[in-house]
Structure to design on (213 residues):
């Protein structure tokens, strides 16, 4: 039988993940978050307010789910919680939505999360990385750890993405591009050149021509 889940974080990302876990027959033991909105998805689960409360469970008695998404004020929290609890002997669930489409040659890692209707051809995804709703990851793509590929992004064939990279919603990365660690690609960008570490790629500025009478 699958172990009960402890969910780290109780926001929007947690809600999406929990829906998949319930659909797959999972049992949610508790949500671990400083504060929690009372929404349908969390009903029946305990609320633990402190991350240290996780230590009340033996590492082999539960599975953790890293439901911290990308918090604007604390981009590293997801990675920090993963490292903290891995070094204390806990393990993290890899969550794959039933509506995602994955090639049989996809290689996923611990705590990778593949959200509804994402499509992955033969590719590799590193630890603790989120492939969000409806994103497309093409053949021979390699994605590092702690990345967030936001909803609807398209990563074309043979792209290489380092660690801690954020690809914004609806962005397109053309084939063969390399994106180094910590880079940020703004929503709606079209990336046609390699990006160096921690660089930021902005989308094209909107150009509006008023109607002429
Ligand atoms: O130190 C913490 C902590 N700080 C905030 N430990 C734990 N265990 N939880 C913490 N939190 C919790 O993270 C907050 O109490 C809240 O429940 C949650 C953040 O929720 P929010 O909805 O603001 O963000 P999110 O991480 O669920 O979702 C972000 O990332 C997703 C991928 C948003 O940007 C979403 O729009 C996005 N889809």
């Amino acid at each position: 039988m699958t172990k009960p889940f402890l969910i780290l974080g109780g926001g929007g990302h947690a809600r999406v993940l929990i829906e998949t876990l319930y659909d797959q027959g999972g049992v949610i033991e508790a949500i671990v978050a400083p504060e929690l909105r009372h929404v349908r998805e969390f009903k029946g689960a305990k609320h633990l307010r402190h991350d240290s409360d996780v230590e009340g469970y033996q590492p082999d008695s539960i599975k953790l789910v890293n439901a911290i998404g990308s918090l604007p004020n604390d981009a590293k929290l997801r990675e920090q919680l993963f490292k903290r609890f891995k070094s204390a002997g806990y393990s993290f669930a890899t969550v794959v939505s039933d509506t995602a489409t994955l090639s049989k040659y996809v290689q996923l890692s611990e705590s990778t999360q593949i959200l509804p209707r994402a499509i992955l051809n033969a590719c590799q995804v590193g630890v603790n990385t989120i492939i969000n709703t409806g994103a497309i990851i093409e053949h021979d793509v390699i994605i590092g750890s702690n990345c967030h590929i936001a909803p609807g992004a398209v990563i074309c064939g043979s792209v290489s993405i380092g660690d801690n990279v954020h690809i914004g919603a609806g962005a397109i990365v053309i084939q063969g591009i390399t994106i180094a660690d910590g880079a940020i690609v703004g929503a709606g960008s079209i990336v046609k050149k390699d990006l160096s570490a921690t660089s930021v790629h902005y989308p094209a500025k909107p150009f509006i021509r008023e109607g002429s009478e």
Notes: The two ends are 70 Å apart (CA to CA). The first helix runs from residue 12 to 23. Residues 8-14, 32-35, 51, 68-71, 77, 130, 132 surround GDP-perosamine (CB under 6 Å).
